[in-house]
Amino acid sequence: MRPPAATDSPVVALEDITFVSWNVHVGNGDIRTFVSHLREGTHTDGRKIDRFVLILQEAVRTSGVPAFADGMSGAERIDARGAADSVDIVQTAEELGLSLLYVPSMRNGRSADDPPEDRGCAILSTVPLSDPVAVELPGEDQRRVAILAKAGPVSVGAIHLDALGRWKLRMRVFWSPWMRDVQIRSMEAFLPDGPLVIGADLNSWHGRDELAVRVLNRIGETPVTVERDGLGLRVLDYLFFRVGANRRAYYRQLQNRYGSDHRPLVGWVE
């Protein structure tokens, strides 16, 4: 396995891009430090990285969000830990000089007493992003929006599925895999042709045999080698690659959570 190295070439090849999927836990993930370490080669066997795409779930926007008003709905607020405020994804992208696509899925809070924040999926990239698509997924509990964009030679997508269904509608744990399968199948028609990399927190509590995981494994036809600790019986986070059956993709789960409750996944294509 050879992670991509830094390159000065003006032409962006798929093999030059490092892909990261990470649930940043509602602004708790230290994106700035992670990016600094990524660029230094900390997570790629010493190979310095200058072209990358961050595919993030539970990113937070704290600026430009309307005040709470009558008739609005939101999710139970999740506060930042160990910091005065959640990390604003728009400000972070500007400070790091990255192209950004962010689409909120839900308000972070259900009351006018909560700070005006929302949370959702984001894509940050050293490669300019184009052709943005947002797909609102069917669901029972919280609003979910998957996003897609073109990053040079490849399309990238960020997905975050429901963890649990509603108590009154179905048994939350045992029937929620069915809901996740419905959510994934609802966005299949929106997936673009050509090379595609998807970063996802599938909340697949029942493991890699869940229907939603199987659907994305079928879509991501490229063979993938994965480095994870443990048996991997309860896997939530994934990278899926559709870049041709004659290529091979790799990704590793990092030890350092960087303040989140999920570990980043760092991947590339050969």
Describe what this molecule looks like in 3D.
By secondary structure, this protein is α+β, with helices and mostly antiparallel strands. It has one domain (16-269): 4-Layer Sandwich (Deoxyribonuclease I, Chain A). It has helices spanning 31-40, 89-96, 172-187, 211-219; strands at residues 18-23, 52-61, 99-107, 118-125, 129-137, 144-151, 154-160, 196-201, 224-227, 237-242, 249-253, 265-269. A hairpin with a 2-residue loop joins strand 6 and strand 7. It is globular, with a radius of gyration of 18 Å. The protein starts with 17 loop residues before the first strand and ends with a strand. The relative contact order is 0.18. Residues 167-174 have low confidence and may be disordered.
Strand order within the widest beta sheet: 3-4-2-1-12-11-9
Average pLDDT, to the nearest integer? 85
Number of strands: 12
What's the story with the biggest beta sheet?
A: 7 strands, mixed
Shape: globular
Determine the oligomeric state from the structure: single chain
N- to C-terminal distance? 8 Å
Tell me roughly what share of residues is in helical segments: 10-25%
The helix/strand order is: EHEHEEEEEHEHEEEE
Quickly give the structural class: alpha+beta
Just give the CATH class. Answer: Alpha Beta
Uncertain runs with pLDDT below 50, 5 residues or more? Answer: 167-174
In percent terms, what proportion of residues is strand? 25-35%
User: If classified by CATH, what would the architecture be?
Assistant: 4-Layer Sandwich
In short:
The protein is α+β, with helices and mostly antiparallel strands and 270 residues long.
